[in-house]
Specification:
- By secondary structure, the chain is of the alpha+beta class.
- It is 26% helix and 25% strand.
- Strands 1, 2, 3, 4, 5, 6, 7 and 8 form an 8-stranded mixed beta sheet that branches.
- Strand 2 and strand 3 form a beta hairpin.
- The chain is globular and about 40 Å long.
């Protein structure tokens, strides 16, 4: 599997059209987010702009997963659409944070598997990217199950407010602490030891004493 870092709208990138169409299939057709439905069957919104970075995962040239990251000091989904979920304070200056959205794995790559390697790769790639960009925290909005999944890989996750019903589902906004330790724990928990974004500028050094399982 390979992770492609696509910065900005970059509509000419060969994976972006597949990304928008696969997102529509997953978030609209399968998950029922009717507010996103478009006649052209493409999930694309105002946050798919020059501020966004897309992490797109391929296997043998086929798109199998992706996600989007937007700096918190630029217009973002959390503070614009889901601001009602935020009741607490962000951990530090917004310039040190980013909003993680539109996480997905192609349905046929996760059916019947408790922990898909595609999800593992995207989790690790997100933390690699956050470190390389100098972020200290990442926000996200998700179901409680996704929050529990993040906690299960060893991440420190802090809710920004109590869960609320969004489209009939319990939904929460939270932030993840970004650190080399967090990258180490997610790699260890998922077995994904390889560097997924080779161009990352950080130097990763595992802790001297591994944490207990």
């Amino acid at each position: 599997m390979q992770v492609h870092v696509v910065r900005g709208r970059n509509s000419d990138h060969p994976l972006m059209e597949a990304n928008y169409r696969l997102r529509h299939r997953i978030f609209v057709d399968l998950q029922g987010w009717e507010a996103l439905r478009r006649e052209d069957q493409r999930d694309i919104d105002r946050f798919d702009n020059e501020d966004a970075t897309h992490l797109l995962l391929t296997d043998r040239g086929e798109l199998v997963g992706g996600s989007r990251i937007t700096p918190l000091d630029r217009p973002n989904l959390l503070q614009t659409v889901f601001h009602g979920l935020v009741h607490g304070d962000f951990p530090t200056d917004l310039s040190l944070g980013a909003d993680w959205t539109r996480f997905y794995v192609r349905p046929d790559r996760r059916e019947g598997r408790r922990r898909a390697p595609e999800s593992a790769a995207l989790f690790c790639a997100m933390m690699e990217y956050a470190l390389s960009e100098g972020y200290s925290f990442i926000t996200f909005v998700s179901s409680l199950a996704m929050l529990e999944h993040g906690t299960s890989v060893g991440w420190t996750i802090t809710p920004l407010g109590p869960p609320a019903l969004v489209d009939g589902k319990a939904t929460v906004a939270a932030w993840i602490a970004v650190s080399e330790q967090a990258l180490y724990t997610v790699r260890r928990a998922t077995g994904m030891s390889q560097v997924l974004i080779p161009a990352s500028s950080f130097v990763f050094t595992p802790p001297s004493a591994p944490l207990g399982m």
